[in-house]
Automatic annotation (TrEMBL):
Domain of life, per lineage: Bacteria
InterPro entries documented for this protein: Prenyltrans, SQ_cyclase_C, Terpene_synthase-like, Terpenoid_cyclase/PrenylTrfase
Species of provenance: Archangium lansingense
Keyword Repeat carried by entry: yes
Classification via PANTHER family: (E,E)-GERANYLLINALOOL SYNTHASE, ENT-COPALYL DIPHOSPHATE SYNTHASE, CHLOROPLASTIC
Keywords: Repeat
Location of the Squalene cyclase C-terminal domain: 341-487
Name of the featured protein: Squalene cyclase C-terminal domain-containing protein
Sequence ranges assigned to domain Prenyltransferase alpha-alpha toroid in this UniProt record: 36-84
Length: 510
């Protein structure tokens, strides 16, 4: 496979031009597919059932082994779905293996205090609900390890009970964990519920009990689930992603990768980048930007969009950021959230710095979240510390907070593997791309010494070698209700890093 700037530009152009098509494309989700099988199965559920069984791991559980806390929700959902959808020797063995896995690994949820900030989305609502449903069909599970999670879930349920239900808001994304009535107010313009196949399937089951067959809203929800299934590329009805649609999320984060590597204005990409920037500029709402036009705006996507648009010469309203700032310096993603995100705050810092505003308070907040090794190890939206560390470093570059960044550079250099890659468990293309993005930005901080150049040279060799290999499995590192991969977005992160290294080849050799 060629490793030339022209080849990478061609590959990037194809992905950038397609951003937002089909509502975004993602890996299929075990949890959401299981919930669709339980609540709104396709006419022939067998292909989805067979797919679900193929996803079971050798240890009996489902879900990515990279994040132990992200395995209990998909495992229990799969157990309940298979128990209700199939009765074969194979499915019975799968169910038994899943139950045993759940029991054997329940201890990872036994926290002395409140759950950590990086638990999967809405797990405090979803997991207790699944455990109640398991108990109702005679499945005995340990409850003591989940006391802290259940307490957090009770607090969340109390907040939701006091809220007016509005379509496209964060609580509606987990409607399947608390909704008891087919409230028409939770349907949005996508014809689904909360950008969530699981929430939509649950609403559809409730509504089918009261509405006549063929009702407009039933047909619309069924259409939503078909569109979600198509976004996985599996061709299997009922096999759906964990969140969809993600049009603006896919657009904004892909452009952020180009922005981070200085490629947003590259002449070879300008003809496909400019239409995407124009689309984002026109998509702004009074509260900013959300993952799609149907979902509530959030502080993370709003910050990144404003930063990129301002830097690209567009007139933006920096006042949109005020609603997402807290007094301590933290930026929130959604209102009423209980776990902070260092990357959301980092993107807020980036936007404020580009807008010329003081960010000293926010920089102090980020510095306090840094580990003793100089790295930022935890974030609620991503499983890899390389993502959180890189995003904070890039933001701090904009803030000119060199002394806060310096220990992170040392930490990244220490963490590089002997063969040149970076990764949590083993080197991965995506995580290495995050490190490359961060280290290349050190030019602006006076930290681009020989050690950094040598690390980037090793990374370039390692990443080039990976192109010749077929990945054993997709790198699912983004955290939703379970880990997932937004394909185009991740490819842009990877290819932008590789293109940047190719363009840097001569300067790195100096």
């Amino acid at each position: 496979m060629p490793s030339t700037p022209e080849w990478f530009i061609a590959q990037l152009k194809a992905d950038i031009q397609a951003l937002g098509a089909q509502g975004g494309i993602l890996t299929p989700s075990v949890y959401d597919t299981a919930q669709v099988l339980r609540d709104a199965p396709p006419e022939d559920p067998r292909p989805a059932v067979e797919w679900l069984m193929r996803q079971q791991r050798p240890d009996g559980g489902w879900g990515s082994e990279l994040m132990p806390l992200a395995r209990h929700v998909p495992t229990l959902a799969a157990v309940l779905a298979l128990r209700g959808s199939s009765d074969t020797p194979e499915s019975r063995r799968a169910v038994e293996g899943g139950i045993e896995f759940f029991r054997r690994n329940a201890g990872v949820w036994a926290f002395e205090g409140p759950p950590p900030d990086d638990i999967p989305v809405a797990s405090e609502l979803i997991l207790p609900r699944l455990m109640e449903e398991a108990a109702s069909v005679g499945i005995e599970l340990p409850h003591k390890p989940f006391q802290s999670l259940s307490a957090l879930g009770n607090r969340r349920r109390g907040l939701i009970a006091r809220m007016k239900h509005r379509a496209g808001t964060a609580p509606i994304h987990s409607f399947e964990a608390w909704g008891t009535e087919p409230d028409m107010n939770v349907l949005d313009g996508s014809k689904g519920v909360g950008n969530s196949p699981a929430a939509t399937a649950h609403w559809l089951r409730l509504r089918r009990a009261t509405a006549p067959a063929g009702s407009k809203e039933l047909l619309g929800a069924e259409e939503f689930l078909r569109g979600a299934a198509e976004a996985t590329g599996t061709g299997l009805p009922g096999v759906v992603p964990t969140v969809w649609p993600i049009v603006h999320y896919e657009q904004s984060w892909s452009l952020l990768a180009l922005f981070s590597t200085g490629l947003l204005e590259h002449p070879g990409l300008r003809d496909v980048v400019r239409p995407q920037l124009e689309a984002l500029y026109r998509a702004v709402r009074p509260e900013g930007y959300g993952m799609s036009e149907f979902f509530v705006c959030d502080g993370d996507i709003t910050s990144t969009c404003l930063a990129m648009l301002k830097e690209s010469g567009y007139a933006v309203d920096g006042g949109l950021l005020q609603r997402y700032q807290l007094a301590d310096g933290q930026f929130i993603t959604y209102a009423h959230e209980m776990q902070p995100s260092v990357t959301t705050t980092a993107h807020g810092v980036m936007a404020l710095a580009i807008l010329g505003q003081d960010v000293s308070r926010q920089v102090r907040w980020l510095a306090e979240k840094r580990g003793s090794d100089g790295l930022w190890r935890m974030d609620k939206w991503h499983a890899s510390w390389l993502y959180s560390t890189s995003q904070v470093m890039l933001a701090l570059c904009r803030a000119r907070a060199t002394e806060v960044i310096r220990p992170a550079v040392d930490g990244l250099l220490r963490a590089q593997s002997a063969d040149g890659g970076w990764g949590m468990a083993q080197p991965s293309l995506l995580e290495t791309a995050y490190a490359v993005h961060a280290l290349r930005a050190m030019r602006s901080q006076g930290l681009f010494g020989p050690e950094v150049k040598q690390a980037l040279q090793r990374a370039a060799r390692w990443m080039g070698a990976q192109q010749e290999k077929a990945p054993e499995q997709h790198e699912m590192l983004w955290t939703g209700k379970e880990l997932y991969r937004p394909f185009r977005l991740d490819r842009v992160f990877e290819r932008s890093a590789m293109l940047a290294l190719e363009l840097d080849r001569d300067s790195l050799a100096e």
